[in-house]
Design a protein that fits this description.
Layout lengths: L3 E13 L9 E5 L7 E9 L2 E10 L8 E6 L9 H11 L3 E14 L8 H9 L3 E3 L5 E7 L3 E8 L6 E7 H7 L4 H6 L12 E8 L4 E4 L5 E3 L8 H15 L2 E3 L22 E3 L10 H11 L1 H4 L5 H14 L3 H16 L4
Antiparallel strand pairs: 1-5, 1-6, 2-3, 3-4, 4-5, 6-11, 7-14, 8-9, 9-10, 10-11, 12-13, 12-15
Helix pairs in contact: 6-8, 6-9
Length: 342
Amino acid sequence: MVSSIVSIDWLQIYADVSLLKYSDEYEAKILDYGTKNFEILEEVYLQGSLFCSVQRKPRSEIIKSHTAVIKFENSLLYFADAETIIATFLRECEIHLLSITRIDLAVDFKKFKNGLLPQSLIKGFMKEKFLKNGRGKYTLIGSQKNILDVSYLRFGTKSSDVNVYLYNKSLEMKEKVYKPYIAERWKQLEGSPLQDVWRLEFSLTAKATTFIDEQTGEIQTITLRTFSNTKQQKEIISALEKRYFEFKVNDGQKNKTRMKRLLLLDLEQTTFTNRYLPAGSDIYKRDKILMKNLYTLDKEHRDIPNYLIEAKTDLIDFMTQNQTLKEYYDNKVLQWDKTVFR
C-alpha cells in the first residue's frame, strides 16, 4: 500500500505533420467542424477506441501550415506503456514531435503527509490559519448545507503558464464521468476504501516544462520519457509544490518567510526548480564551458599527470554522447587546438 500515486492526466503536443500518413491500424474521422485556430479537426481511433484528436490546417498564417496540435485520449495516459504506444503512433504515422504544449501531472491521496485532510487545508487557508507563499488569484468551489463543504481550490488563471488544482477527485467522478482505470489504481492507496481521494494537479504549458537544478545548473525537461520515469514525475511534482503550492503556518509574524512550512506531500526531495527560459537561452552553456576547460587543461597547465589526461578524455567522450554537445565539440576542437596559452 502507498500513501500517494502520481500520474500524467493530460498530454497535448505540437507537431510537424507535413509527412502525415495514418498507418492501417489507425482510423481517422474528420468532423464536420473545426476549431478556433484550425480548419480541420479529426478523431483518430485505434482498435475501435478513441486514441487522439488532431487539429490541423491552421486558419492563421502565424501558425506554420504543416503543423498540428494533437491531444491524446485521457485513458491512454494511464497505460503502463503509454510512452511506447504514443512513440509508435508518431513514428508509424510520420509525425515529428516539436514540443509539448500542455501536460498535467497529478498526485492522488487521501490525506497529507502530516495527517491534515485536504478540506481542512482549504478551510485553514480561507481563515488565514495557513498562508500560501506568493501572490495570485484563486478560485474556490464548495457547497453549503448544514456545514460548509469545500471540494475545489485553484491557483492561477487561463493565461497562467502553471495552474494548480486541489480537488475531491472521488466527488468529481461521482458527479461527472466515472473512470474505472483511475479507480482501479486507487486500490493501492492506504486508508479506508470508503474515504474520498483527493488530487493535487499541476497543469503546465510549454513554457513551464523546463526545470533547473539550483545546485548544479543541470537542465531537466519534460518529454515523452517522463511517462516511464515515476521518479522524475515525483521530483517534478515536488518542485512544483515547492514553488506553487507551499503554505506556511500563520504564527502572527510579519515576515511570512520565517513562518514554519506546512509539510504536505511525501514525494522525492529535489533541488530542481521550475524556470522559464527566454527564447534563445542556451541550456548547454555550462556544459560547453566545462568541455572547453577540460579539453584545454593540459594546454594551460604543464606537467599534468597522465591519469588526469585520460580522465578528461573519458569525460569529454561521455559528454559528446549528447548530439548537441557533440556538434559543438566538432565545431570548436580545431579552434581550441590553435589557441595559444601563456
